[in-house]
Amino acid sequence: MKFALIALSRKYHVSESLKRVICWVNDSNNTLIATSETKLLIDEKYHDNFDFVSTDEEAIERCDVVISVGGDGTLLRAARLVMYHNKPILGINSGRLGFLANIPREHIENALDYTAKRSFEVDRRFMLEAETSDGRIHHALNEFVFSKGSSGSMISLNAYYDDVLINRYWSDGIIIAGPTGSTAYNMSCGGPIITPSADVMILNPINPHTLTTRPLVLSASKPITIKAAPSNQVVLFSKDGEICDISSAETEAKIRRSDFTIDLIKLPGQTYFDTLRNKLMWGMDIRDTFTNT
Fold first, then answer.
1. Which of 56, 72, 123, 263 is flagged as catalytic?
2. Do 286 and 224 reside in the same domain of the chain?
3. Does the annotation count 27 as an active-site position?
């Protein structure tokens, strides 16, 4: 089996996880494909065991499975690269939380064994698509965010569902999240957790200047449009935490469910609710902590 290796080290220390992946591949006679940039993260004694290519896109085109080593940010980047090629992603966590990249270091070899035998299960996630006022199309797995600029002032945004006005929001911004992004920025801003298979989108205002404004869960069968009103405000538009370069004077985007989906590899028996409990301490009773001390 051919594995494309996607790894970023700017935020997290990935060398131990990389070493374990490389050693497993060597022992199992599989193939690793990576870029020259990733080559810098790998000890020279392992270089002969790699097929190095120019770009991550080329590595993904030539592989059977993508291995993402890092945090959730690394996996989100891999997802946008993979969406045109329909290759499954094995997310190995070398970051902090690792909600999407949920294979811990100690389970790397076990996860790779299942993957090589093609006995893994797939967790399919749909992506979001945004068409901005400049005519460009953007994709995100977690969320799109409209947020205030460097001035620090609140911004005024109109939200429409299937071209029908929902509300005018005066706030620090608005999050439009899919089910995968429900446990990311949306959750931090008090939004609901949505199971991955739900065909919905979340509209969540960030710090709205009213006590009555709450997040909305809307069917993904119709688009959500966000428009700066008035248009001369400084509004930042981002996808999965990455700022998009669009004109702040024409900030408008129509967001819908994308036709692209991402397949995340999970171990047999691993469930979404296991991840909620283990990663987010979901349902943990803090009284138990004090009882045992």
1. 72
2. no
3. no
